[in-house]
Amino acid sequence: MTTPSRYSAEPVELALDSWLLEGTPAPGCPTCATLATKRDQAAEAGAWKAACNAARGIRNHHDGHRETP
Ligand SMILES: [Zn+2]
User: Quick check: pTM over 0.90?
Assistant: First the structure.
C-alpha cells in the first residue's frame, strides 16, 4: 500500500468550497452586517479560516427562525 503524497504546499486559491463563504446577512441586523464585513475583509486578506467562521456566524445567526420585518 503506497500512499501518494501529492499534496504540495501550494497556496489555497478560491478552490475551497464557495459555500463556506456563503451567508446572507439578514436585513437590518447589525450582527449580520458586522459579520459580513468581517467575512469580506478576511477573504480579501486571504484569511479563509476567519472568513469561513464569519460566514458560518451569519448562517447560524438566524438559524431555525426568521425575523419578520
Ligand atoms: Zn443576524
Answer: no
